[in-house]
Amino acid sequence: MKINSIIKGIGLGLIFIVFIIYTIGIVYIHIKYPDKSHFIYGYYTDSYGILAAIGGVLGIYISNQWNGVKSVVGRAITMFSIGLLFQFLGQVGYAWYRYSYGIEDPYPAFPEIFYILSIPIYIYGIWQIALAAGIKFKLKNPLYKLGSALAIGGMMFLSYWLFLSNYDFTDANIIVIFIEFWYPIGQALYVTLAILALILSNKLLGGEMKSKVYFILVAFIVQYIADTYFTIEYNFDAFYPAGTSDYLYVCAYFLMALAIYKFGDLPDKLHQKNLVSKK
């Protein structure tokens, strides 16, 4: 038990240290090197994914306290962790393209597949939390089923209307079109599911689960904003390394890593409740 606390404490410490470094770092870079073509901007963009890697590895460890994929919460934590690791792999992949082939702007390239797959992984993870909170039972109520469908459909339509309704398909690459539709619509789905899970988790484990789901929801929203902001910047040729979208990703990874840590912070007695054995 003591070893578990030490490992989780080290993981939490690393999460905060890396987040602080990249928060101070982005301010320092912009003050010290106002020329945005300076190589230090690229180094920032290619390295902050280490925060996602730390959160992902810590999450895999914490999921074992919930019997791993044998329990709904364990599966959820595992999926959130894999999602973070995929974000890290996507960033490493793009960095490899740049430094190995000298391609300054390889987007979209093969590493994008990791970012694309992180969305269904996150959806599956938050669905597991919703299952633990009793969404299947709630969906037996026709009014709740209708309300959930309207919430999900409404959020997806809002994403389309805000970001895609005026999309210019002229000379557009089919892969780019897919990516730019996939992110806002797919992320709208996991944000809505997180909201439903948050509502349902009010009494889950005596309310202990609610704060964890809240952190996940905020992390999802920030990730959604980051991806959307990046797409807008890229389409208007306004993106530059170590900019606003990059720092939004730093915040999203930090919040998700923190949410995962909080799952390991529950009292041991709760691990023996029905959530650990439910399949």
Alpha-beta content class = mainly alpha
Taking all residues together, what is the mean pLDDT?
84
Tally of alpha and pi helices: 11
Number of strands: 0
Q: Uncertain runs with pLDDT below 50, 5 residues or more?
A: 275-279
Measured distance between first and last alpha carbons: 25 Å
Most strands sheet: none
How many whole angstroms does the radius of gyration measure?
Answer: 19 Å
Order of helices and strands: HHHHHHHHHHH
Q: Give the overall shape.
A: globular
Write structural notes for this entry.
By secondary structure, the protein is mainly alpha-helical. It is built from 11 helices and no strands. The protein is globular, with a radius of gyration of 19 Å. The relative contact order is 0.14.
